[in-house]
Each structure stands twice: as structure tokens, then as C-alpha cells.
Amino acid sequence: MRCIDEIPAGELKGKRVLVRSDFNVPMGADGEVGDVFRLKRGWETIQYLSQRGARVIVASHIGRAPEESIEPVARALKKFGAVVYVPDITGPAANKAVSAMRGGDIVLLANLRSDPREKKNDESFARELASLADMYVGDAFAVAHREDASIVGVPKLLPSYAGLLMRDEVVELTEALHPPHPSLAIVGGAKFETKDPVIRAFLEVYDHVCVVGAIANDCLKGKGFPVGRSKISEHAPAREVCENPRLIIPTDVTAERSDKQAFVKKPEDVVPDDKIVDIGPDTVATLAPYISEAKFITWNGPTGIFEEGYTAYTSAIAELIATRVAKGGVHSVIGGGDTISALKASGIPEEKLGFFSTGGGAMLEFLLKGTLPGIQALS
Fold first, then answer.
1. pLDDT, tens only, 256-281
2. Domains defined for the chain, CATH in brackets
């Protein structure tokens, strides 16, 4: 996989470069971008190309509905530099806008998923996108596990390179595949069946693997503890996973009653009216020595139900990691949209926590397989 910084600057000047970014960002109640984390990270590649005189054509999807507009992203990007929004993808308006571009100009095309051919990896759509440019840059790591036309179709038709974000993600996560010892992995989220392969893989290479979030409920239940009305996955974890000596499950939990009152209690004290919403302080204390000794930490998924405001123990773990990073000798890789949002809300600066991955599902799939369709397409 070649990166754009391997191209002599003179060869970029005047070139039409199609950059597949991932600007699928959350929107606020006012209809404007609510979090610029992905925009800031993706802007580095766009700026790099623009400063070297390339004509930069940015393509991304947003949301789940095809009618959702990406224009608010264009407005947010203007905080970083001059961006022109084109409400078209491959039609006359897009072609006219690209033809009018000068070196250094940046345009953002309309929501890629407004064309159903994108998700179908339709060859005709890939060819239309490719006709806009002289070269392609894949920089959308967070959706590199998808086989969409703009991710795996276009690279077959143009000289293709990785963007700066994509390169950094691959470098950082490749190290996480074979971490130095001692190492710790923290995995959260829901649907144990989707996390099971990753947890099994981590148990093979990490010294300790801690499960948090809804999947911890599955492991608690598998160990015979009551879970009340907590969220449970459709498929229970296997005994060999629950009984693995490297697996760490919560030693206490935060349980919310139906009247919304929450209390910290031992797993065995959970009653039918309880819903487990987070870990507790004893679990944080259990993790503390593993964090203080670790040379490598991988973390994906907050400890509690982030959308319901249960972030205190996610922040507590982040503080332990920040303390360990400050002492040196450890590298940490953290990913997952809710995890990043929770950590940003904690007020701990990103640089004190290690590398923040833009991927959630893509990060876990890369750690399981060592590659992704969008990465293979660039090779």
C-alpha cells in the first residue's frame, strides 16, 4: 500500500485527485455537525494535497437515509479551509464543477449513498466516479470494511494511494495485532456474537482481556450471575471464553432500577428489577494494576451506556491510562465512536491517551483479519 506522501510533490500539481473520506459525523439538534473529530483527522490528507496544487475532489457518505444531505459537513469544513459544496455526484453539475477547478481547489460532492449504486458496488457508478479524477486516495478507514463502489470499485480504475489517515490507522493497528507484553485489551459494546471472534483472538495474544458494556452482561450471565432486565445478546458466550483465565469480567456493577435510581452492587446482588448500566469502582480498581504495568493497551467500547449518561467509569479508566501514558513505556490504541465521544466529554486531551482510531467496527475487523477490503483495494 503506497501513501500519497510517497508521490513527489511536483507530480501532484494540477492533478484531479478523488479522495474517499469518511465524514459520516453526528449532527446536532440544529442540523449542524456535532463533532468534528473525523473532519479534523480527514482534513490532513485534503490539506496535504491542496497545498501541493492538486485539485481535490472529496467524496463521502453521511447517515443512513439516502436523502440526507452532506452540505452541513461542507459548512463545518470551512473552519479548516476553503471548500465548495457541489449538490451532485457524477452528473453534469459535478463534471462542470470539476472542470472549473484550479490547483489547490477543494470540492465536496453530495452524499454518495444518495445513489443506490454506491452500496451495490456497481461498476458503472465506479467508472463515473473514476472519470472525475486522475488518481484516487483512500482515506476512509472507518468504512474500509465495506465493499462499496467508492471504496473497492474506483481503486481498480485509477492509480490508487492511501491517505495520511489511512496510513496512520494501518500502522497503529498493525502493532496492536502483536502487542508487546504485558498487554491489555478492553472490549465493550453489544451483541456478543459480533465481538466473540475478536475476544477469542485477543485472548490468544493479549495477557488480559476485560469485557465491559452490554457484552459483560453476557459473560456475567454465563458465569451464573443474575442480570435482571439488563441487555443480553441473542447468542451466549461459550464456556471456554467465560472460563478463560485471561478474561476479566466486572467485579461490581452499576444497576439502575425501573424508577431510574442507580446503585453500585456486586453481581450476585442484582435483582430482577435491575438493569446493569455500567461497571463499578471495584472493577476500575481491579483494572488499575494491569493498566499501570501494561506496555500496550487496546480499547474499543465504553464501559457503560453512553447515550444514557453513564460515562463516569469510562472516564476513570481513561484517567488511569493517561497517568500510565505520562510515565512513558506504554502505547495505547482507542477506537469506537461512543468511546471517543465519551473520552472527549471527559476533558482528557487526546494526546494524553494515545492513538484515537476513527474506526469502530472497522477497527475490530482489522484486528481480527489484519486487513480490510478498502485496504486491499489500495495494494
1. 999 999 999 999 999 999 999 999 99
2. 4-164 (3.40.50.1260), 172-367 (3.40.50.1260)
